[in-house]
Amino acid sequence: MHLESLKIYNFRNLQDTEVTFDPGVNFFIGKNGQGKTNLVEAINFLSSGRSFRTQKSKELIRFGSKDLSVFGHVLHADWDVDLGVSIESSKRKAFVNGDQVKTLQDYIGKLICVSFTPGDLILIKGPPGERRVFLDKYLSSLDSQYFDILVRYNKALSHKRALLHEDQLKRQEVSTWNEILSDWIVLIHKKRLEFLRKLEALASKTYNRLAPADGPVKLVLESKLSGEDTGADVYQMLEEAMDKEWRQRSCLIGPHRDDIDITFGDLSARSYASQGQTRSLVLSLLSGVIDLIKEETGEFPVILLDDVESELDASRNKHLVEIVMEKEAQVIITGTDASAYKDYAEKNIRVIASGEISSLETTNLKMPYESPTVIARS
User: Fold this and answer.
1) Which runs of E-coded beta strand occur in the chain?
2) At 346, is the secondary structure helix, strand, or coil?
């Protein structure tokens, strides 16, 4: 699959524009703070209907405006689709071929993007929530049933959580939600286990290439459930934990408490990974996700690399270029220096300055650049 074109209106500092993309490598060069990451965010927003930087919709809308929209045309091997997401009067709407969809389940998966940004390095040593977001993002893009179950689970969990904040414990009402939640918990758990099993083999293969002396990568789902637990088993666990949950005003059992234990060799990445190993592990996980998406869908996802040169040393950046280019996928890259990608994106290097996307002579690959000719502006 690849993103053929993107139309942007009132998205952060980006000028209203239509951008076309090559099926291969596309590089957007610019100084910091000019809108490079905003472009990557807009593509992610089109893919998932959500931002990877904020949960506050108003932060996405250009200052002084009241709404925004991002539309794109996506080509697959045997079909194509027009996608769109808008925010109007604080309400988010998603469109497929011009028709508004009722739920994001009908939208997710039609444009799958795998992104690497400097913020992704928190995946290894950051809080558990970061690893759950990673897990849910890519599993949802491959499995619409998982996405639907996860949405239903989170809504039910919020109802139960509200009951736990009542002055008196309403046992019967909590038990009703425990019964509803228990089967969903089992399904989410089993799908996560299967996803991590597949991802582990692919990520370990890439990590062995980057750091052959470190040993294999292992991905273990840390949960209060076992792979053999049934809905009845989980319901019993929830019932037994009810008093403790009410005292702590917190839901203590379920996938919202899961974590991923990432190890290399016999060492915990959270405790022992160096900065270099952390970067190699993140690259390996994302490479594994790319390969897994190809295995499951028959197509590579769109690969988004945002300002990777700022976080990777020359050796790892070289490895990243090699690994990504081997995928034969569409790649959209931002940075301040396009020279590492000259051989791959010679005809598709553009400038982002003050939110405006412009052409760049390929003979002038490093900053500073001279006044470009505007090629995309409405």
Assistant:
1) 2-9, 17-20, 25-29, 67-75, 80-88, 91-96, 99-100, 113-116, 217-222, 259-264, 267-268, 302-306, 331-335, 349-353, 356-359, 374-376
2) coil
Read off the tokens for 220.
């273990």
Amino acid (1-letter code) at residue 372: P
Per residue in 91-146, pLDDT tens? 999 999 999 999 888 999 999 999 988 888 899 999 999 999 999 999 999 999 99
- pLDDT for the residue 370: 40
Q: Supply the pTM of this predicted model.
A: 0.90
Confidence of residue 309 (pLDDT cuts 50, 70, 90): confident
Torsion angle in degrees (nearest 10) through CA of 197, 203, 205, 210: -160
> What is the pLDDT, as a whole number, of residue 361?
55
With vertex at residue 112, the alpha carbon angle to CA 276 and CA 18, rounded to the nearest 5 degrees, is 105
Sole residue written with tokens 């290399």? 264
Kindly list the strands in the beta sheet with 331-335, ordered across the sheet, starting from the edge strand earlier in the chain: 113-116, 302-306, 331-335, 25-29, 349-353, 356-359, 374-376
Give me the residue label for tokens 């083999």: 201
Distances (CA, A) of 96 to 2, 52, 105, 148: 16, 21, 12, 18
